[in-house]
Amino acid sequence: MEKRWWHKATIYQVYPKSFADANGDGIGDLKGITSKLDYLQDLGITAIWLSPVYDSPMDDNGYDIANYEAIAEMFGDMNDMEVLLDEANKRGIRIIMDLVVNHTSDEHAWFVEARSNPSSPERDYYIWRDEPNDLESIFSGSAWEKDEASGQYYLHFFSKKQPDLNWENADLRQKIYDMMNFWIDKGIGGFRMDVIDMIGKIPDQGIVNNGPKLHDYIKEMNAASFGKHDLLTVGETWGATPEIAQLYSNPDSNELSMVFQFEHIGLQHKPDAPKWDFEDELDVPALKKIFNKWQTELGLGQGWNSLFWNNHDLPRVLSIWGATGPNRVKSAKALAILLHLMRGTPYIYQGEEIGMTNYPFNSLSELDDIESLNYAREAQANGQSIGQIMDSIRLIGRDNARTPMQWDDTKNAGFSSAETTWLPVNPNYKDINVKNALADQDSIFYTYQALVQLRKNADWLIDGDFELLDTADKVFAYIRRTPNEAYLIVVNVSDEAQDFSFNGTSDEIVIANTAVPGDLSKVTLEAWDAFSVKLV
Ligand code: TEU
Ligand code: CA
């Protein structure tokens, strides 16, 4: 397989509204991100996935774009964006922009024109019907909104302020590619593509993800924009199986570098249920089965994969699958070792590297996220108690990932000189913050730093195949093997001691969150023990 820069990279996701506030208005901004590049360079990451910073009414915190080629005032201006690109590139850090082209904001000029003038060319950039069908929005309620002026309904799989684009329209597609080239010409490092597997939808047949023309559109996009450049492209594809992931990421496909698959995230809720019917106990055997399928199908084929626990839509991994009490630090290191030593490009979500946790939300008034607020309103209307609703939101709501980054133990956790206006700082910031992490050689930060560094140099991480070992349910152990090297990775994904035995000897410790036994033939793994060794 031809090596590309993103095979050895670790990507860091920044959610701009809550990363760092430079102008003291309580909201994160581009200058704030630029001020933290030295910290990110110290962590060792070589690319930042920047969640949307474009002009937006912020109905969905920027995933509702009103102008793709302008910067939202709350984040700064285009000069600030160019400074960030320049300063990041100086540090060997690429900026991966968030491409949201399944839908725009209803305040985008295209939709304003489409709505006000039914015979405009822009009308067909969106999806209009005389009558709605039973398609549901992911943010609760119908996926159709009536436009009084024309009497027609337009499709929106997210909020009604996020009308879906009609990818069957070739003029629209070309306008998207032109916009992508505008950003490529600015020297970005690639694109993360928001719900990209929805652009082939056929609403009249109820087809949403994985529509029949999806891969044709992506190949066309590749040829018309990033395909000619050395860029990382990662699709957010909730509907991707490993087989489909291979389709996108096989270099011969000329589609994407990789995708985000979500089968493992599906373990956070009951089977075939909405996310709010949560499961807070991790089914480790199910997780092993999912990763084994990814690693062997994609590992052996020409495909490539992403590796993640967290992003801005997901609960903090320590709060749902790790430990938040005395074992918080150890479980964070264990989960990092488990994930980062598999085959793929790892993604670190802001705050994950210092073990940030969910926020103790008490009432709906503390929330910001439209998805949670719409769910709460619909669930209450259906008679669900506020207690049950808050239990779900407290565990799995998206705001948990969006509270301000915790930089130090001063007021507002060093995120801002002002009270944070849109989400509160987690009260545990006095203990969990970057300053404490950097001062403690045994912190989670240095485990992540070591894993990022390892990926840059260890070819076995890129080329090695993957063999899952048959172990106790809550022990996740695998071997990475190249023709002349083999590495064992062992993780106790539980709060209890587990037995482990392996017929082999090691002569070199790669990384560990505990003392590594010399004799592997009969080992008692304490809670969250994790280690990797090179096998003789
Ligand atoms: O997320 C896609 C998406 O559907 C998620 O919102 C996820 O399905 C949901 O949170 C789980 O219930 C992308 C962005 O990552 C998300 O932030 C946006 O809200 C959404 O698309 C619309 O752009
Ligand atoms: Ca600000």
TrEMBL record:
Superkingdom in the source lineage: Bacteria
Molecular function GO terms recorded: alpha-amylase activity
Protein's recorded name: Alpha-glucosidase
PANTHER family, alphabetized: ALPHA-AMYLASE FAMILY MEMBER (PTHR10357), NEUTRAL AND BASIC AMINO ACID TRANSPORT PROTEIN RBAT (PTHR10357:SF179)
Family membership: Belongs to the glycosyl hydrolase 13 family.
Domain Glycosyl hydrolase family 13 catalytic, residue spans: 13-402
An individual GO BP term: oligosaccharide catabolic process
Keywords: Glycosidase, Hydrolase
UniProt xrefs under SMART domains: Aamy
Phylogenetic lineage: Bacteria, Bacillati, Bacillota, Bacilli, Lactobacillales
Pfam family, one: Alpha-amylase
